TrEMBL record:
Organism: Paracoccus hibiscisoli
Coiled-coil region list: none
Family matches, as InterPro entries: Integrase_cat-core (IPR001584), IS30-like_HTH (IPR025246), RNaseH-like_sf (IPR012337), RNaseH_sf (IPR036397), Transposase-Integrase (IPR051917), Transposase_IS30-like (IPR053392)
Protein name (record): IS30 family transposase
Segments crossing the lipid bilayer: none
Disulfide bond in keyword set: no
Signal peptide stretch: none
GO biological process, one term: DNA integration
Length: 317
């Protein structure tokens, strides 16, 4: 249209853009070579080349090789872009990057060529919303409903209150499953395997796992209404802990363990053969998650916060 001598205002109308946008486009990408005066003007190939060059210069992770390699290393270790950016701010170094820059690099042609998207928490190829599955429901006593849980527990003001859930895998690989138990304040994570979904063995494993902790560190556990939690009274007898249960079809009422399960799925997808995995490998996975900084903890790690809360409640300075 410029070659046809059409005015910028008319070009803007036909392209559905403001005339200032067209003026800026022409000014930024106008080619002016004194050695070839006949080539002077706005040419779409040159404009695209110039725009791509500016975009590459503005991409911090493309310009800084050392920063890029550091980001990719911790991304492959399981850190989310927010955790990476937040930890950089927490450490106070000069070289830092925001989480949006990391996402843009991951979804850029360079990041896609390295398949970096599979290291993100949701392992998405495109940035879009997903929906969580709904658990099964069962009737439990009214006094154990989550609506009766103290406000201090709901607001994460009291230490020693946990959330628990089961991660289920493909039926053809057997009934084995993985239990995840999360402390609500510190996000401290414990992971262990169950060979089936029977309730009593699961509760016995929980009792054996949490009983070494002091009483103030194991005050209650919140579950959904799955059949695997029907023996919850064993907790009151063996652990002295209160059990709370979500409303029907309301997994969002125990968000800490639900979010943790989504993270764990990166290493334990549904087609995992659990019987081929030893407990020490699950222990190592839990240690990795507990050593990963969290935005909700001001980029401290769950292990650091859990240790501080134990010392605080025990009166240890």
């Amino acid at each position: 249209m410029l070659q046809r001598k059409i005015s910028v205002a008319q070009i803007a109308v036909q392209l559905g853009r403001h005339r200032s946008t067209i003026h800026r486009e022409i000014r930024r990408n106008f080619w002016n070579d004194p050695e070839v005066p006949m080539a002077t003007g706005y040419w779409h190939m040159n404009a695209q080349h110039l725009a791509a060059g500016r975009r590459k210069r503005l991409a911090k992770l493309l310009r800084d090789d050392e920063l890029r390699e550091g980001v990719i290393t911790v991304l492959k270790a399981g850190w989310s872009p927010q955790q990476i950016a937040g930890r950089m701010r927490h450490e106070g170094g000069r070289r830092r990057v925001c989480h949006e820059t990391i996402y843009r690099y991951v979804y850029s042609p360079e990041g896609q060529a390295q398949e970096l998207g599979r290291y993100l928490p949701e392992r998405r190829r495109k940035r879009k919303a997903r929906y969580a599955r709904k658990p099964r429901s069962l009737v439990f006593p009214e006094r154990c409903m989550i609506r009766n849980r103290p406000q201090a527990v709901k607001d994460r003001e009291a230490f020693g209150h946990w959330e628990a859930d089961l991660m289920i895998f493909r039926k053809e690989h057997g009934p084995a499953n993985v239990a995840t138990v999360i402390e609500r304040i510190s996000r401290y994570t414990v992971i262990f395997r169950n060979n089936d979904r029977r309730s009593k063995p699961l509760m016995n494993n929980l009792i054996n796992l949490l009983s070494p902790l002091p009483r103030h560190a194991r005050q209650s556990l919140t579950f959904d209404r799955g059949l695997e939690f029907v023996s919850w009274r064993e907790l009151e007898k063996g652990l002295g802990a209160q059990a709370w249960f979500c409303d029907p079809q309301a997994p969002w009422q125990k968000p800490t363990v639900e979010n943790t399960n989504r993270c764990v799925r990166r290493w334990l997808p549904r087609d995992t053969i659990l019987l081929a995995i030893e407990q020490k490998e699950l222990l190592g996975l839990a240690q990795r998650m507990n050593a990963t900084p969290r935005k909700c903890l001001s980029y401290r790690t769950p292990a650091e916060v859990f240790r501080d809360e134990l010392a605080k409640a025990s009166g240890v300075q």
